[in-house]
Specification:
CATH superfamily: L,D-transpeptidase catalytic domain-like
Strand content: 35-45%
CATH class: Mainly Beta
Number of domains: 1
Number of strands: 10
Radius of gyration: 15 Å
Largest sheet: 8 strands, mixed
Strand order of the largest sheet: 3-2-1-10-4-7-8-9
Number of helices: 2
Length: about 160
């Protein structure tokens, strides 16, 4: 089965759809997109819109709560105590689906390149608010949800982000 992802910024939802026809809902997850809203420009802190694909999957086999920095496990497991020692850290946990834009001039190339902006779908601490925009541009999910999504998709999966 081929799946596709649709991210609805206003509803703060990620839908997993049957990719052949796109009309069968396979899963629905609450998410958190950018506090700064939708937008494509490098340095904006916004979530990019348009058609994307999963370029890389990072974190396979890592336990939920694994801390990832620079797309590599650090050997740390997230805990409130670790958070206290690193205030203000943008926690990327469990899994990463690294996105690449498919639309030149919109989300691919130049100052709007999603891949070069390091835009991911990734896990976050379980006590982070989900369902409201609070990220730095990425799409945040609960750890159990991002692990399930990671297992359901492959590199090349279509990701439509709409505002």
């Amino acid at each position: 089965m081929t799946v596709a992802i649709h991210i609805d910024i206003p509803r703060q939802e990620l839908l997993v759809l049957d990719g052949e026809a796109g009309e069968t809902l396979l899963a629905r997850y609450p998410i958190s997109t950018a506090l700064n809203g939708p937008g494509e420009t490098h340095g904006s802190g916004c979530t990019p819109r348009g058609l994307h694909r999963v370029r890389a999957k990072v974190g396979a086999g890592c336990p939920p709560g694994t801390v990832l920095v620079g797309r590599r496990p650090t050997g740390e497991m997230y805990s409130p105590e670790l958070a206290t020692t690193h205030p203000g850290r943008d926690w990327i946990l469990s899994r990463i689906l690294w996105l690449t834009g498919c639309e030149p001039g919109i989300n691919r190339g130049g100052a709007v390149d999603t891949l070069r902006r390091y835009i991911y779908i990734h896990g976050c601490p379980d006590d982070c608010a989900i369902g409201v925009p609070l990220s730095h541009g990425c799409v945040r999910m609960r750890n159990a949800d991002v692990v399930a999504l990671f297992d359901a998709v492959s590199v090349g999966t279509r990701v439509q982000i709409g505002a």
